[in-house]
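Task card 7
Instruction: Convert sequence to structure tokens.
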Amino acid sequence: MCCRFLMEESPEMRPLIEAMNRSPLMAGFQETGKIRTAGEVRPTEISPAVAVSRLGKRMVFPMRWGFREKSLLINARTETAAQKPLFREAWARHRCLIPASCYYEWEHLPGADGRTKTGDRFRLQTPETGITWLCGLYRMERGVPCYVILTRDPGEEIRFLHDRMPLILPEDCTDRWIRPETRPEDLLGAAVTALRFERAV
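Output:
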């Protein structure tokens, strides 16, 4: 599960924000929702996403978080995206990357009544780089690009938090992920699951 992530004002993030702000697509977002250039990003907000342009070039685009169906969909399961009609085409050809400084997860605690209770909030990020690359799928909705974040089984060290985590790839796999000719299944074994984590203040 992923329902919050953070974009810090960092040297790694700054070029991505600047590229998003230069995009001609920004004009179409002015009245469609909150444009986020720093801070905590929530569903329905617009933030940078990296994808391949029509000319095959890696580019940064503004995208809104969530597919609007009967309800807002913000995540898709990596294990079933290729079979689900809603995600099948995007899984095959419309993959993106959402740059984050970290993402947030709330600890899920079993209660005495058998129900799950929410505990502390944790900050999670990759240990090696300044950007945690969250993998997503995108589509157009009324001329506006929108994305969902892919999720998978968590790594053992963070399983105590939640039974899902975002699909995260290392920097050297990001170009292949967004290429339409890539079989996404070929990259799943490279996913980053060993994350730094700490309680968020």
